[in-house]
Amino acid sequence: MPIDVRVEPPRQPEVEDLLRLSDEYAFSLYPAESCYLLDVSELERQGVTVFVARVDGRALGIAALVVGDASDRAAPRAELKRMFVHEDARGRGLARLLLSAIERAAADAGVAELRLETGPLQHAAIALYERSGYARIPNFGPYVGDPYSVCYAKALPVPAS
Question: Which domains does the chain have, with CATH numbers?
Answer without folding.
Answer: 3-113 (3.40.630.30)
